[in-house]
Amino acid sequence: MSYSIGQVAEKTGLSAYTLRYYEKEGLLPYVQKNASGLRIYNEDDISWLSMIECLKATGMPIKEIRQYIEWYKEGDATLSKRLELFRKRRLTVEQELSKLKKILGKVEFKIRLYEKAVAAGSLEAANNSEEINQLREELFGDPNYFPEVEEKKAV
Amino acid sequence: MSYSIGQVAEKTGLSAYTLRYYEKEGLLPYVQKNASGLRIYNEDDISWLSMIECLKATGMPIKEIRQYIEWYKEGDATLSKRLELFRKRRLTVEQELSKLKKILGKVEFKIRLYEKAVAAGSLEAANNSEEINQLREELFGDPNYFPEVEEKKAV
DNA sequence: ATATACGTTAGAGCGTACTCTATATCAAGG
DNA sequence: CCTTGATATAGAGTACGCTCTAACGTATAT
Known about the structure:
Multidrug-efflux Transporter Regulator, Chain: A, Domain 2; 2 domains; DNA-binding
């Protein structure tokens, strides 16, 4: 099965512009062209694209993705470099996950605070409530810790 | 306690350039200046900065952070808008978390694959091994699912 | 055969978030 | 007073990842 650039764009959610850009940047070294110069993508190209999307989702910049692809093209001589690369990606993703979990806690605290504020019609009232201070202590281990202390500010 | 821009840069890890840029973009509307025009940051400014860092970590662009700050300045009339904003942030973070967990699974699969490939000296051998195919099935529910099928490609 | 839709290239442009430069002023120690 | 180092401003420049334009070629239905 083969696909035009438009069909691949449809399938992947990437624009045709982006597909050509990736190719220009060396991320899709295997895309064939027919006699008239039109790109013909096959299943393997689609698979490469899903690999690229995976690496991008780990926060990897395009230059480094190209590096991976170049190593891939060099064959088994670069296996350990590629292993190393994936281990670094794992670390990055793990760090991002733990960062985001903390952030989620803070956002959830804010939601509770603002739910109470909306109910009370006053941020100040919610912010000084027993419930919120207790929550603050539970979440941040300190009733005096205000990750969003700006609410206390006299404006 | 008050701080110079350099001290705040030190404390927060942001550059002085970035601090001025944030101010210009309306993210730090309360920073005072002394008679000579030098910025004097106080604890509340630091707190705003940590709020900004939190919102940035949720993927929020600077323009929207400014919107939040403008709503904050308008007082209790905008409480429900701000609640809504935090609920959207929660959704964004939850989606990002679930995406990253899937990505981590794929990266871990790759690590196992490459560990085996390094041991065998051949990606092809690892890729066709019983163990890897079993893992593929465990992880992706399909022994024929190849999220990185490019390894099968004849290069 | 021609209209229309889709594809090609090279290269310019854009949005975001900084980051730096040039030039000038400020603050503190010797 | 003078030097040194931090800070001020306006505005230019950078890096990244696209995104689009212009001018032209291809494919296909009527």
